[in-house]
Amino acid sequence: MAQQMSLDVNGNATRVTVDDPETPLLYVLRDDLGLHGPRFGCGLGQCGSCTVHIDGQAVRSCITPVSGLKPGAKIVTLEGLGGPDKLHPVQAAFIEEQAAQCGYCINGMIMQSAALLNETPKPDEAAIRQTLAQNLCRCGTHLRIVRAVQRAAGTL
Asked: Is the pTM of this model over 0.70?
């Protein structure tokens, strides 16, 4: 049976209708709300392409059922992190370091990095690498990605 849900996405209150309460948040964000920052990658929570922030924590949206969201949870996608007029420091650093190549991992890398910097504003290289270790990058821009996070943290 279809169910109405209220969500706070990128600072905007919105209502969506879901047929199944176990529908992954990723599907709601992409299909119902038209947000394309979080991407479908593996569908198993292993690659990180679908990463969003829920109440400031990096979460894999492909394995997060909408029914599992707490009332009032604040969801932030890549689009809500920053935009063309005002980039988030991590987004700007990724551009400056040319850290994106194919784009498969970039959403997850940026969202995971932003969550890290919110928690640890000046992480060392080992902490950055450890945090990003669970995000898959197929084209091998790891060195540029690490430099981008260091640049955003002001430690480059």
From this structure: yes
